[in-house]
TrEMBL record:
Pfam family, one: HRDC
Residue ranges, compositional bias (Pro residues): 316-327
InterPro entries assigned: 3'-5'_exonuclease_dom (IPR002562), Exo_C (IPR041605), HRDC-like_sf (IPR010997), HRDC_dom (IPR002121), HRDC_dom_sf (IPR044876), RNase_D-like (IPR051086), RNaseH-like_sf (IPR012337), RNaseH_sf (IPR036397)
SMART domains linked to this entry: 35EXOc, HRDC
Protein name: Ribonuclease D
Residue ranges of the region described as Disordered: 1-22, 310-332
Source organism (scientific name): Actinokineospora bangkokensis
PROSITE patterns xref list: HRDC
Top-level taxon of the source organism: Bacteria
Gene3D superfamilies linked: HRDC domain, Ribonuclease H-like superfamily/Ribonuclease H
Coiled coil: none
Length: 415
């Protein structure tokens, strides 16, 4: 695997060069229509791939919108664009980015909020995904830049409140550095993938990521409340649901991250203790705070609404799913399916090791489980290929895995 430039043979590679600010200095924030027009003209006149990144405020705001968009292109420089300041009217940027190749790191995190601004790539290169396919064990941006380019990026503000205005200079430097070396990293990873014979795999993955439809809303999202496994009764689950929905409404209306309105741990505790009045509620640790005292009536109404529900409206402790049960239960529910899954997993693990890539990138684990739980009627390589393709597997994946999966299905069927 390619490594960063090193010293004389047998010596340790030189220490990475620390970057604390962009080579061209801290860019001004593009915060009005005229500045956006100028930036767009420069970006359009630049050449080569376009590095793109966003900053959100996930831990602070309910919205997953972009509070800053970073763009860098050869011949144009780096631009830090404040979409809020221009009322999300970024049409000049849409046109400037045009049909150029976008380079993002962990694109699935940024593409949704970019699409909300009308920004959608026509060609994509994801450096995180490229790093995974190339077999790097750690694929954080800073790690890959250090390994392949020999630079250490000043980090530390990724989880900051990017809705804050004005943004501090050190935050702006951090944001600009996220795109400073992204195109160079792209080139190094492309060379690595080409050398390993995986470039076509990566291009197919990038296109699948680029064209993926928006994720559908989660069914019963309240069931993802941290610690919910400790509450087992339908009435207790109803209390969690009611508190979660009350919190979600408040968070959405105020554009505050739900966990800052009321932490999950407090929801679980209130549902478990089931306080009968406001005084009992305010005895619980989190609810003693000033902010929670002001909202005590909201939380108590939610608890009382859950307590008043008829049994027919209580949530099921074990709701039906559209997929197979957890794999650790297969041996009891369907021993043959468990044998199929074990055989297929063993084959794919070996195949992933041979090709130096994570097994989950070789084939989506959920798709493998579904295929082994309900195998295709035709267990031939062709039949398995068709089933995997219908489940979303890419051509390069089915080329590699269809035969060993088909063999696992057939072998266990003979037992």
């Amino acid at each position: 695997m390619t490594t960063p430039a090193s010293g004389p043979t047998g010596s340790e590679p030189p220490a990475p060069v620390l970057l604390t600010e962009p080579a061209e200095g801290t860019p001004d924030v593009v915060a009005d229509a005229a500045a956006l027009e100028r930036a767009a003209r420069l970006i359009a006149a630049g050449s080569g791939p376009i590095a793109v990144d966003t900053e959100r405020a996930s831990g602070y705001r309910y919205s997953q919108r972009a509070y800053l968009v970073q763009v860098r292109r050869e011949g144009a420089g780096t631009f830090l664009i404040d979409p809020v300041a221009v009322d999300d009217q970024v049409d000049p940027l849409v046109e400037a980015l045009g049909t150029g190749e976008w380079v993002l790191h962990a694109a699935s995190q940024d593409l949704p909020c970019l699409a909300d601004l009308g920004l959608r790539p026509t060609t994509l290169f994801d450096t995180e995904l490229a790093g995974r396919l190339a077999g790097f064990e750690r694929v954080a941006l800073g790690t890959l830049v250090e390994l392949l380019l020999g630079y250490h990026l000043e980090k530390g503000h990724g989880a900051a409140d990017w809705s804050r205005r004005p943004l501090p200079v050190d935050w702006l430097n951090y944001a600009a550095l996220d795109v400073e070396l992204l195109v160079q990293l792209r080139d190094a990873l492309e060379a690595e993938l080409r050398e390993q014979g995986k470039l076509e795999w990566a291009l197919e993955e990038f296109e699948a990521l680029r064209t993926a439809p928006p994720a559908p809303p989660r069914k019963e999202p309240w069931r993802r409340t941290s610690g919910i496994h400790s509450v087992r009764t339908p009435r207790g689950l109803a209390a969690i649901r009611s508190l979660w929905e009350a919190r979600d409404t408040l968070a959405r209306d105020r554009d505050i991250a739900p966990g800052r309105v009321l932490p999950d741990s407090a929801i679980i505790q209130a549902a478990s203790v089931n306080p009968q009045d406001e005084q009992a509620l305010l005895q619980l640790p989190v609810f003693k705070g000033r902010a929670q005292r002001r909202l005590a009536g909201t939380w108590l109404r939610a608890l009382r609404a859950a307590a008043a529900l008829p049994k027919s409206d209580l949530p099921d402790p074990s709701p039906p799913t559209d997929g197979p049960p957890p794999a650790n239960r297969w041996a009891d529910k369907d021993p043959e399916a468990a044998a199929r899954l074990a055989a297929a997993r063993a084959s794919l693990t070996k195949l992933a090791e041979e090709h130096r890539l994570p097994v989950e990138n070789l084939l989506q684990p959920d798709l493998l489980r579904r295929t082994c739980w309900t195998p295709p009627e035709d267990p031939s390589v062709e039949g398995v290929t068709a089933a995997l393709r219908a489940g979303g597997a890419r051509t390069w994946q089915t080329t590699l895995v269809a035969a060993p999966v088909a063999e696992a299905l057939r072998a266990t069927a003979k037992r």
